[in-house]
Amino acid sequence: MNLPTKALQPNLLHIYFLESKNQILIMMRTLGFSIPTLLFPVMFYTFFGIIFTMSANMPTYLMVTYAVFGIMGPALFAFGVGIATERGQGWFDIKEVSPMPASAYIVSRIVLTLIFSLIVVMLLYFMGAVFANVELFRSQWLLIAIILMLGSLPFCAIGMTLGLYLKSSSAPAVINLIYLPMGFLSGLWIPINLFPSYMQYFAQVLPSYHLAQISLKVIDMDVGGNLWIHILILTAYLIVFTILAIVVYNKKDKKS
């Protein structure tokens, strides 16, 4: 008896769901990923935005900028360290030859990034609202969260490029050397207007600076740059690093 072709075709959404669920469970059990990713931004905000705050507006400003810092971590580490580790262990090669579509691998890590990012943002919102008396309109809370979720995509592309290029042994150190300085130099830890002028100019080449400025525009705390310039630069980062990831992957594929 001939079975209908549709019955033999796997449900793509179901594959995405299963692979995403698998990635989330793995990362939740990997305490070296889950604990720093979820708690470091909250810990820093507690110290610098609540306990040692220097002005009345500081808790609101830093809640938003530490949220940007918070979404960078899951993107860079889930893609960068995650892919490099799987390559080192051989799992990446196994998944390459498996029937699972390549898109499921990328989608699952994006879902993982978005879920961890949303948890970090919600934790920071809670700390800001309860312990720092941060008051925003509902539309502002929601819009900032949406901006941050979309803004994580360029960092996913950066992480994917690094994960495909770096060795598993060096990936955590290299990505930390990118993640932490980028966060500081973008004005995510202290307000950008406290920096010397040359550091403020340098910050403008960093994607985290532009995501922070878009988010701060929602609460009128940005430095006053053009919104579309910020969006254009983030889009350029997304496109350029996606292309770089494809190039690195194809070179790796030819060597193997």
UniProtKB/TrEMBL annotation:
| Localization in the cell | Membrane
TM regions (residue ranges): 31-52, 64-85, 106-128, 140-166, 173-192, 227-249
Q: Which PROSITE patterns match?
A: ABC_TM2 (PS51012)
Q: Which InterPro entries match?
A: ABC2_TM, ABC2_TM_bact-type, ABC_2_transport, Nod_factor_ABC_transporter
One Pfam family from the UniProt entry?
ABC2_membrane_3
GO cellular component terms attached to this protein's record: ATP-binding cassette (ABC) transporter complex
Keyword Transmembrane in the entry? The reply is yes
Q: What is its main location?
A: membrane
- Give GO terms: molecular function aspect only: ABC-type transporter activity
Q: Is-annotated flag, keyword rRNA processing?
A: no
Which keywords, in A-to-Z order, does the entry hold?
Membrane, Transmembrane, Transmembrane helix
Q: How does it sit in the membrane?
A: Multi-pass membrane protein
The residue ranges of the ABC transmembrane type-2 domain are 28-252
Q: What's the name of the protein?
A: ABC transmembrane type-2 domain-containing protein
